[in-house]
Amino acid sequence: MAKPKSLCLFSFSLILLISSCAAVYPVVDDLRVARSSFPSLQAKKLIRELNLFPKEDVNVVDEGRISFPEGSKLVEKRFKFPDVEGLGGVSVEDLGHHAGYYKLPNSHDARMFYFFFESRNSKKDPVVIWLTGGPGCSSELALFYENGPFTIADNMSLVWNEFGWDKASNLLYVDQPIGTGFSYSSDRRDIRHNEDEVSNDLYDFLQAFFAEHPEFANNDFYITGESYAGHYIPAFAARVHRGNKAKDGILINLKGFAIGNGLTDPAVQYKAYPDYALDMGLIKESDYKLINKIVPICEFAIKLCGTDGTISCTASYFVCNAIFSGILARAGDINYYDIRKKCVGSLCYDFSNMETFLNKKSVRDALGVGNIDFVSCSPTVYQAMLVDWMRNLEVGIPALLEDGIKLLIYAGEYDLICNWLGNSRWVHAMEWSGQKEFVASPEVPFVVDGSEAGVLKTHGPLGFLKVHDAGHMVPMDQPKAALEMLKRWMNGSLAEGGSSEKLFAEM
Ligand SMILES: *[C@@H]1O[C@H](CO)[C@@H](O)[C@H](O)[C@H]1NC(C)=O
Ligand SMILES: *[C@@H]1O[C@H](CO)[C@@H](O)[C@H](O)[C@H]1NC(C)=O
Contact 166/118 with Cβ under 8 angstroms? Predict the structure, then answer.
């Protein structure tokens, strides 16, 4: 096998390169050489493994395509997807499904696309926003494969999802950062590079959304998402909280934020890769020792990136990802989103039905997206966010916890790329007033339908849940448990673990 060898060389030469440089800046310079090619390959590989083939690299178009009525910043329509099984005589009004575009104020010409599904249960249910990661992948991935109202059958009809999160919430999916999904701009300068830009856009959108839907503005509000959204979510939650404190615009009733298999504190999480890989039998002890040599260099590189670096952050991305690619080179053709699975060909998953569906004329007409292409995952957006990748987003979280805003970190146990171990470690290491109690609190089973669906640890506003029999995409692998988790977390009963026996014993 030639591949592992060359990758081994790659990581090894990085070690030599870095350890032989006394000063740091020459290292950065050397790494800049590789900058142009590698990340785009990485992004394209990611996208291909999902069996997605977006026609465009990014949604940057010649001119504004969606027309907005004079003076309005948001256009929205109620829609009904064609070909929904078992919809019967339900009208567009009955469904409460909306799709819209929002003109971003702090942009040259950016339009953000969103879906809004009113709760199938009650309009009084919390409003929940979902953000998919990538960076640069459309939230429609989650809509159709994880927790949306429908799933796509192979014959392109939609089938109701019994465990859609719209069964317990008024559910929003946003395509962001700009250039992703159906969101677009006619100006390249609107491509985003950091969490300030991302969180301001999301905050502006929320303000416009609640102005459009004042009847939902007093509902509880929760931010959720996955993977690279481990970066977006803490930044967005902090932005909302700051806006509320400054009494900017509409008060947003932020109650909590939840991150599923996220990347939040890279220094801790990259260090956990070799440990997780060894524990799960993906690598041998000798490989572990070799790969672990990159860890201190990675930690050092991340320190240089800090919380506001730029080129040093891109450099640390390369250094640290040698850990990850070193593991993959030795682990064979595993699916790094779910190590129980093999990547068949270059495909780890097949999400191609989503692209086919969203490019159907009848669907596009229903959504009112005009002639905007659907960019399932954007390599350009991915690359533009590389300077943000190694930033530590844990730093803003304690202030939110102290103000009683809930945080749930959950992780499917078989995901490698944002594995539970790294997440558990940063959650435990986080300094806040309840840290000691959180660390000391017992693990309790998370019971769904009488069987253990995960292991849970909570104290005050903080919860950590390791989900059994799931990979990176928990609501896809364990839809019922994921919906239960959401319901109990939102209504404050998650800490009870769902085990009546346990409750009894404590009383
Ligand atoms: C399409 O597939 C779904 C799910 O397998 C099935 O329920 C439905 O009857 C099929 N529809 C048509 C038109 O074949
Ligand atoms: C919270 O939600 C769960 C799941 O729907 C339910 O079983 C439980 O009774 C609810 N608890 C409270 C306190 O409302």
Answer: yes
Catalytic: 378? no
**Shortest-distance ligand to the CA of residue 157:** 1
Residues composing the chain? 507
CA distances from 222 to 125, 257, 277, 373 (A): 11, 6, 33, 30
**Helices vs strands, H then E, count in the chain:** 21, 16
Does residue 227 carry a catalytic annotation? yes
Q: Is 84 in the pocket of ligand 1 (CB under 6 A)?
A: no
Domains of the chain: which residue ranges?
35-492
424 contacts 464 by C-beta, under 8 angstroms: yes
Catalytic residue (one of 183, 185, 199, 227): 227
* 241 a catalytic residue: no
Please list every protein residue whose CB sits less than 6 Å from any atom of ligand 2: 487-488, 491, 493
Number of the ligand 2 atom closest to the C-alpha atom of 491: 1
Torsion of CA 209, 211, 214, 218, to 10 degrees: 70
- Fold designation for 35-492: Rossmann fold (3.40.50)
Q: Tens digit of pLDDT for each residue in 321-376?
A: 999 999 999 998 899 999 999 887 667 899 999 999 999 999 999 999 999 999 99
Whole-number Å distance, alpha carbon 155 to ligand 1 midpoint, is 6
Catalytic member of 241, 459, 468, 472: 472
Give me the phi and psi of 276, to 5 degrees please: -65, -45
pLDDT at 310: 78
pLDDT tens-digit readout, 466-483: 999 999 999 999 999 999
Question: Which atom in ligand 1 lies closest to the alpha carbon of residue 157?
Answer: 1
Distance in angstroms between the alpha carbons of the first and the last residue of the chain: 59
The 10 Å Cβ neighbour count of residue 345 is 10
Contact 227, 263 (CB under 8 A): yes
Identify the three-state secondary structure at position 96.
coil
- Helical H segments across 306-444, by residue range: 311-331, 352-358, 361-367, 379-384, 386-389, 397-402, 420-429, 435-440
